[in-house]
């Protein structure tokens, strides 16, 4: 209403001037008319104006309400504004903008989609050469072969990270929630990464009851475990240390804790460890650090409905906890 | 002796698999013409098929169905794709198992053996038992036994794994990392001390067979089996 009145303000002013002009003319020509007839004429004319404005407002009501507070009507943006010429024209303009916007959005989505497809294909293509290097290195004996194996492991992990990062965008079609045995998932992931443990001389200790199961997606869980374990081993800081993986239930929740005996994280870094590309002071010393591991873990947790917590005592170690909503015993 | 058909369009990878598998006593045939995989299968009389998914002309799923229509032999997929959907596709097209790239030799070998055991009966019933020979030493990895001339000794599973690794590379160094890797257990990390204990036990077994000092320690690197060096 306020906007409507503001739009009509020039008309009202124009009208007021007109209304003053008539008595002025009478006065100038010296034609004496009783004041009452002048006021009557003014009132009559004002009534006609009021009817006109009322009619106009009713025809354009929707348009003015929406123009007054556009944010509030985002959801009903496609609702027609009315059949008066102005609302119709605005409708048409909005529709053209909307179509253009949707077209661009669609094109962008297709671009992202084809990029993801390309990335997936590319990663898969790289896996055959990787297999060949890995198998060839297995046949070699000297120290060089160990070094090649180490690099192949890193390549493999890098590719895996690319794959899972791009899969994250299509998460909805790429997960299935099932009861998963924590003990099995953890020991298989540890075994998969055993070369890393061996190379760093870090021990793995698994303390999880056989019966403990959680509702989750096995593939994503194992990816998260691999990220957390890799961090734990890399930041353990030397051989002879132990990475402990334990799980216990607390009320309705099941908590999986991965604890290392490493150098820990300083309190000022602690807030940022889940940020993408954050590597921190220590991270820069390890070539593996992309700073994406914990970020991905948090993103995956968000989508799977789990929680992730991290606590650390500098100099004593870090522990990452995955918290599952409800377990099965 | 079982024949394995390798359907993999990367010639290098196929060649590596062939070399490795023949070391373990398998006959291998590599498919070269990917427009007639089924013919190659029928000609080879293969007992098991290793099948890649991405192939020129038709994909692995297609050939899997073709082979399935003629034979019940085990088919193992080897593929870079690792999503659940791909594995389901493979199994629904008649595959028996699925190996994702990059893989380790042991995984391929273990899966081949388990399929053959399931389909053609246990190894014990086979006329030929798998053996690893190295000079005068003969290892029977399936029943954990080692023979030297007339003498035989029983081994534990871990000792057998250790000896097999050393014998396959006789005269060359097998790194500690490699041995630790082979001996990894589900729950426990095998540390250096434990490896030392196992090596000591293996040496004792070899001593019982009059093959003293065959296992040499190579400082900072690993261990080497040297039968010729033994008295």
TrEMBL record, chain A:
Signal sequence annotation: none
Gene Ontology molecular-function annotations: ATP binding; phosphoprotein phosphatase activity; phosphorelay sensor kinase activity
One Pfam family recorded for the sequence: HisKA
One Gene Ontology cellular component: plasma membrane
Catalyzed reaction equations: ATP + protein L-histidine = ADP + protein N-phospho-L-histidine
Residue spans crossing the bilayer: 12-29, 35-55
Histidine kinase domain boundaries: 121-328
UniProt keyword terms in alphabetical order: ATP-binding, Cell membrane, Kinase, Membrane, Nucleotide-binding, Phosphoprotein, Transferase, Transmembrane, Transmembrane helix, Two-component regulatory system
Bilayer topology annotation: Multi-pass membrane protein
Domain of life where this protein originates: Bacteria
Any Gene Ontology biological process: cellular response to phosphate starvation
E.C. no: 2.7.13.3
SMART domains assigned: HATPase_c, HisKA
Keyword presence, DNA-binding: no
Subcellular location: Cell membrane
Matches recorded under PANTHER family: HISTIDINE KINASE (PTHR45453:SF2), PHOSPHATE REGULON SENSOR PROTEIN PHOR (PTHR45453)
Stated name of the protein: histidine kinase
Species of provenance: Paenibacillus durus ATCC 35681
UniProtKB/TrEMBL annotation, chain B:
DNA-binding segment(s): 129-227
GO-annotated cellular components: cytosol; protein-DNA complex
Sequence ranges assigned to domain Response regulatory in this UniProt record: 3-116
Keywords for this protein: DNA-binding, Phosphoprotein, Transcription, Transcription regulation, Two-component regulatory system
Residue numbers of 4-aspartylphosphate PTMs: 52
Pfam families: Response_reg, Trans_reg_C
SUPFAM superfamilies: C-terminal effector domain of the bipartite response regulators, CheY-like
Biological processes, Gene Ontology terms: regulation of DNA-templated transcription
OmpR/PhoB-type domain span: 129-227
Molecular functions per Gene Ontology: phosphorelay response regulator activity; transcription cis-regulatory region binding
InterPro entries referenced in this protein's UniProt entry, alphabetically: CheY-like_superfamily, OmpR/PhoB-type_DNA-bd, Sig_transdc_resp-reg_C-effctor, Sig_transdc_resp-reg_receiver, WalR-like, WH-like_DNA-bd_sf
Protein name: Transcriptional regulator
Organism: Paenibacillus durus ATCC 35681
């Amino acid at each position: 209403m306020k906007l409507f009145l503001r739009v009509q303000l020039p008309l009202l002013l124009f009208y007021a001037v007109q209304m003053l002009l008539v008595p002025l003319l009478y006065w100038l020509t010296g034609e004496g008319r009783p004041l009452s007839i002048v006021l009557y004429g003014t009132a009559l004319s004002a009534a006609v104006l009021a009817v006109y404005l009322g009619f106009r407002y009713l025809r354009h009501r929707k348009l003015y309400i929406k123009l007054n507070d556009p944010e509030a009507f985002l959801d009903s943006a496609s609702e027609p504004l009315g059949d008066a010429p102005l609302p119709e024209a605005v409708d048409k303009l909005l529709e053209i903008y909307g179509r253009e916007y949707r077209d661009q959005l669609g094109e962008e989505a297709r671009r992202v989609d084809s990029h993801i497809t390309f990335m997936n294909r590319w990663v898969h293509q790289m896996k055959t050469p990787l297999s060949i290097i890995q198998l060839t290195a297995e046949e070699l004996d000297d120290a060089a072969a160990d070094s090649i194996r180490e690099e192949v492991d890193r390549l493999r992990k890098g590719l895996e990270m690319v794959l899972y990062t791009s899969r994250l965008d299509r998460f909805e079609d790429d997960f299935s929630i099932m009861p998963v045995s924590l003990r099995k998932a953890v020991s298989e992931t540890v075994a998969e990464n055993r070369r890393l443990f061996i190379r760093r001389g870090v021990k793995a200790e698994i303390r999880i009851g056989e019966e403990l199961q959680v509702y989750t997606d096995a593939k994503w869980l194992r990816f998260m475990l691999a990220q957390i374990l890799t961090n734990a081993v890399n930041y353990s800081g030397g051989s002879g240390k132990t990475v402990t993986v334990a799980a216990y239930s607390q009320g309705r929740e099941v908590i999986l804790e991965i604890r290392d005996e490493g150098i820990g994280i300083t309190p000022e870094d602690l807030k940022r460890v889940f940020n993408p590309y954050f590597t921190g002071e220590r991270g820069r010393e390890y070539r593996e650090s992309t700073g994406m591991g914990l970020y991905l873990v948090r993103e995956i947790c968000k989508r799977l409905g789990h929680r992730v917590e991290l606590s650390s005592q500098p100099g004593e170690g870090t522990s990452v906890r995955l918290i599952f909503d409800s377990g099965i015993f | 002796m079982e024949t394995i058909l390798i359907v993999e369009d990367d010639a290098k990878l196929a060649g590596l698999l062939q070399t490795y598998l023949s070391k373990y006593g398998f006959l291998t045939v590599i498919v070269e013409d990917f427009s007639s995989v089924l013919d190659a299968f029928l000609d080879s009389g293969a007992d098991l098929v290793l099948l890649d998914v991405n192939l020129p002309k038709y994909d692995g799923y297609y050939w899997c169905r073709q082979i399935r229509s003629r034979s019940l032999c085990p088919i193992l997929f080897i593929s870079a794709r690792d999503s659940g959907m791909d594995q389901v596709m493979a199994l629904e097209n008649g595959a028996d198992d699925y190996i994702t790239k990059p893989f380790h030799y042991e995984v391929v070998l273990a899966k081949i053996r388990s399929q053959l055991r399931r389909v053609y009966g246990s190894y014990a019933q086979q006329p030929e038992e798998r053996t690893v020979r190295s000079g005068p030493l003969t290892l029977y990895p399936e029943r954990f036994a080692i023979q030297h001339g007339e003498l035989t000794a029983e081994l534990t599973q871990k000792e057998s794994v250790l000896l097999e690794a050393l014998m396959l590379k006789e005269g060359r160094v097998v790194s500690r990392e490699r041995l630790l890797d082979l001996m990894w257990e589900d729950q426990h990390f095998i540390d250096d001390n434990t490896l030392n204990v196992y090596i000591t036990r293996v040496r004792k077994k070899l001593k019982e067979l009059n093959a003293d000092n065959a296992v040499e320690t190579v400082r900072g690197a690993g261990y080497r089996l040297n039968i010729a060096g033994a008295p």
